[in-house]
Amino acid sequence: MRQTYSYAALLLLLPLFAMFPIQEHPSYNFDDDLVAYYSFNQCDAQDDTNNGSDGQLYGSVGCRCGIEGEGLVLDGAQDYIEFSGRVNHYFNTTDFTVSFYIKTNEYSVFRQSLLSKRELCDEYNMLDILLDRSQGGIEADVHETPTKDYPDLFAYLNGGGWVHFALVRRGTVAYTYINGVKQKRSMRCSGVDIGNLALLSFGNSPCVGRGGARRFKGVLDELRVYSRALSEEEVAALYARFPVDRAENDCLS
To answer: Nearest Cα to 128, choosing from 112, 109, 105, 108?
Structure first.
């Protein structure tokens, strides 16, 4: 009798399953609004989207195993990258996401220049992302003026080795992520205009050699720039494609 009752109850529930199907984990298209993508797998800074935003290598940039395929090795002294073309049009008042992996075991009391779009070493209309090992994290400076910015976007790291960093600007709010996990949220009610004429660069902040900054020493891989704000779930899914615990650990000695 009990089995008959259970079977009858299941038959009654079947129409409800049809009306409300089980939701599968969403799949994401990471090409949507991707304005520039640098895999570095050809040991250059070619824009793999073919949108006309190729980068130029300066110094003696090397190439060896990255988080996926090849990565670029910068020496911390002369090496840096500049990106020309359309990628520079997306840093103003609109939403954007930048995402990249770095690996460094270099400890320094000086901040190291990562991704930058900044004309001068001041706090006007600028984006500057710097590695600060002495403070144990990555500093993201997003300013329109010295007093109009997204404050406190510092993202803490767990030691050295490979790390994935993402900065997302959605309207009046900005977020930083480490290894797919949200670290900081910062809000500015009136928004922040970071538009300027500088080229997007890596390792070439105008504060290098002044303002207590040096060039980055380590490996760079998988740099992406989007013209939209990725959601928290999308950032986590993007990182999950190449989690750092699966990366080779001895690429940089």
So the answer is: 112
